[in-house]
Amino acid sequence: MLPVLDSNNALEQQYLDYLDALNRAGFDGDIETQYSSRLAMATDNSIYQKLPQAIVYPKHIDDLVCIGRTVQAFDEVVFSARGGGTGTNGQSLTHGIVVDLSRHMNQILEINADEQWVKVQAGVVKDALNDALKPFGYFFAPDLSTSNRATVGGMINTDASGQGSLVYGKTSDHVLGLTSVLVNGDVLHTAPTAIETCLTHEQSSYQAIAKQIQASCVEQRDAILAKFPRLNRFLTGYDLEHVYAPETDTFDISRLITGSEGSLAFVAEAKLNITPIANHKALVNIKYNSFEAALRHAPKMVAAKATSVETVDSKVLNLARADIIWHSVSDLITDVPDHDLLGLNMVEYNSNDEAEITARIERLSAELDEDIKTQKGGVIGYQVTYDVPDIQKIYAMRKKSVGLLGKADGAKKPIAFAEDTAVPPENLADFIMEFRALLDAHELDYGMFGHVDAGVLHVRPALDMNDPQQEVLLKQISDQVVALVAKYGGLMWGEHGKGYRSEYTPAFFGESLYSELRKIKAVFDPHNKMNPGKICTPIDSDAQLVQVTDTKRGTYDRTIPVVFKEEFAPAMSCNGNGLCFNYDTTSPMCPSSKITSDRRHSPKGRAGMIREWLRLLGQQDVNVDSLNAQQFKSSWLSRMINTNSGNSNQDFSHEVFEVMDECLACKSCSAQCPVGVDVPDFRAKFLSIYYQRYSRPVKDFLVANIERMAPLLAKIPRTVNFFTNLSFSQWLLKEAVGYVDTPTLSVPTLSDKVKPYTSFSMQGLASLTPEQKEKTVLVVQDPFTSFYDASVVADFMALATKCGFNPILLPFNPNGKPQHVKGFLDKFARTAQSTADFLNDIAQFDIPMVGVDASLLLVYRDEYTKTLAEKRGEFSVLAVHEWLSQYASDGVTQLSVSHQPTHTLGLFTHCTEKTALPLSEKQWQVIFGKLNVPLDIVSVGCCGMAGTYGHESSHLANSQGIYALSWESAVAKYPEDARLVTGYSCRSQVARLSGDKPVHPLQMLNRIVS
Ligand SMILES: Cc1cc2nc3c(=O)[nH]c(=O)nc-3n(C[C@H](O)[C@H](O)[C@H](O)COP(=O)(O)OP(=O)(O)OC[C@H]3O[C@@H](n4cnc5c(N)ncnc54)[C@H](O)[C@@H]3O)c2cc1C
Ligand code: SF4
Ligand code: SF4
């Protein structure tokens, strides 16, 4: 029997009392203390893991004030602010309370284009801000790879920067003013202010801070100037140098808070300057025969006033090549015949003056042509693009490469601990050569890329954090890198902040300046409550800094039985980079995360839950040699008793179930997560085991048996539809089964519609001549289109006929997807084997097989392969667009359009399809293009239906909410007869929520051609 899992992690009494007091003090935001919520905040993108006591989600500044005022009576309670949680060195991790500003405090308050500034709440995501600024012709300039999920508050507190920082600066260069809340509840408004005003400020905390600045930063100025490196990336942490501006005789306290990693105050709002978007851009992708050649060439580009110079090595390039993202850039970075492309510089020029850019590019091109001719400097080729969307595609590839570095086979995974060193750019090539020698001496695998213009190198050596010896090695390497950067006049933390690397702060600053940092800390946060241990400790306290050797995720992961890890490998491989928190509603990743604003309901959250579930399960008296539903088999009676027993209430498995249940199984994560975290895969395994202890709801049986029932019901469709449509039946289905908006069966049925076509028989297929086979197409049925949207199948057969083919409908065989989604894995395995056997028998005739619903036929490619391994056989089922492109291309060209569409058509693709088959949208465009019919690719995320998810009453509100995120407005832009929707689920969702049923693109093709 599956045991009850107890996390044994009750909240400490002081925290319980504090949260209770907070509630009573009128805190308006959310307070979460359940174990799953705490776990979701226990990791970031670092190697560390620290379980917080609770998470609070303030709604406004008054909530932050309330947090501060209330804590005065609680000595032990500490905080860490959190935004996107994308820190690479544990910056936001705490054993205290996480104060997450990303859920509610994420509004853009004011845009003043005339004065070039914007006012925002700290939780706004950087790309969301830029979306809002774009119509005004501005952007928030500091860039970072995590721009689609990192928040402005996080950026301010790590002084984030990235590509183009020489021109666009760091976050601190753009902060005009901050509204922060001190841990005593005081609200601090900071902006450059005359020193005299600061020193006599009416607010006592403000005045105390100003006096400390006078003592630490004005009086120690020479020591500060001597210590702080003259680098573009001077350092993160309290900026003792720039807080004081002698030329204007002002203090800017914001400069201390910027880069303070939440160790001084909660940043609530920021006034930021904004930069005009340059009218013209050009990107030159220069290709080299070695990474060293790329590095040595880069300073020349910087000297030639490039806006930014980015470099990637061959390892990163090869990872990108193997990912779906390469499709978007393959024609922008083509191979060079007879050469190995082992290094790439991406050199960008921006200007409002087109002629200036053209002149620069011409000059650079002439130099590069000469280099190639004379084989100088390892340059082997280059490509120039002026197209802004193309330039964005290249940068998207570069940004994704960071995550792709995490995609490594085996136990060793690329990890962040020395991933953002910065040295003077002129030293970078030599530094990197020595850095490489250091890593090579330890026989480590790694990929490198960086902002060569700023001397910043990104590298994540692969180590196995499950191995205690490798953890020791990590510390050794970390110390060696600190020494190496010092040798080259640089910094260990050139971009991402200090976090657990804060232990190197005292040595870096020296005793005297480190004391000044501590005095600054003490005047803001005397009792060390704000992210304690990060950056520095308050003066006169015996508090300790966090250490590189502190508890890591590996400490927990290594206790999970090996077999469990293997069985749930995708959950183990999540590295926490947070790409699945993508804010963009038109991106398919991840609908449940977007609609709930709850990090638990994301691929990262789900992977974390499973890891903890496996760890707790491994601690129980269970067989650790295998992990499957069979070993926990139990009777229905015991399941019923467990379900109703109070003893099971505290079972952690329920919390895991809750987050799995909210997943739509849309599979966007499977294709879009850079390391391939496939939630539907481990979700199905979890459900199969969970339901060995607890009873399944009736609706699960209904869903899992839909493929058996539908063919029977379709024999009497009118009768079934009559009863289904009765209000009483709908009420009963909703109340007793939890199922809503039950679809009706197609009338006339598919069998009626396909009568005119050749019917299927094995003998018939066997008797076809090779020429006849070439002109035959076999239609593989799926349960949804065949029985509920039969005209799609019939229209495909009509279209195939018009293209000169003889379509034959194969007999219906269950696909198994509904069983898989609900975790009936035994049944799914049997269904998959039986259908695979049938399709393999058919495949011997060597006639293309086509399925009209891509999300279902993709199950043959993925889940069948994972479940059946070699028993799956070699059969292949094509999607309609694949067949039209590969087999019927000539037939399509010969079609003539008899009914031109009256409106431009809009293509809405199913999210499983567009993420697993990234070329599908372009292929549809090409197919329609052959007939000179324009087709818009409509940018939408998930429609919210996802098979049966949207029909389950418990998910109805979220299903509708997801539809409203991107589909509702996009659908409204196209007239009813111009909406082409590839997914059965999506068509059903549009029909139920807009009232008009759209068609599949193949139906439109069939409709417009004769
Ligand atoms: C794959 C990857 C690529 C990255 N690339 C870059 C890059 O190109 N450039 C770069 O600079 N960084 C980069 N980072 C690091 C990270 O994304 C940045 O540090 C980012 O600014 C963090 O923002 P966040 O919202 O995720 O903050 P979090 O990780 O949530 O927090 C970061 C720190 O800020 C504090 N904080 C957050 N919000 C507040 C607030 N409102 N008030 C007070 N303190 C607060 C936290 O306590 C913590 O110390 C990368 C990270 C990853 C995973
Ligand atoms: S699930 Fe994938 S995208 Fe999300 S944090 Fe983990 S590795 Fe990154
Ligand atoms: S399957 Fe879809 S809803 Fe579920 S975790 Fe993955 S992206 Fe999110």
Model description:
The protein has 1010 residues and is α+β, with helices and mostly antiparallel strands. Helix 16 (428-441) packs antiparallel against helix 17 (468-487), helix 41 (880-886) crosses helix 44 (920-930) and helix 45 (956-972) packs across helix 46. 53% of the residues are buried. Residues 44-45, 80-88, 91-92, 101, 122, 144-146, 150-151, 153-155, 157-158, 160-162, 261-262, 266-267, 402-403, 495-497, 531, 577 line the site of flavin-adenine dinucleotide.
Number of strands: 30
Bound compounds, each kind once, are: flavin-adenine dinucleotide, iron/sulfur cluster
Sheet bearing the most strands, described?
7 strands, antiparallel
The value of Rg in angstroms is 30 Å
Distance linking N and C termini? 63 Å
- Beta fraction: 5-15%
Mean pLDDT: 94
Helical proportion, percent range? 40-55%
Question: Overall 3D geometry?
Answer: globular
Structural class category: alpha+beta
- The number of distinct helices, counting runs of at least 4 residues, comes to 47
Query: Uncertain segments of ≥5 residues (pLDDT<50)?
Result: none
Biggest sheet, strands in spatial order? Answer: 18-15-17-16-21-22-20
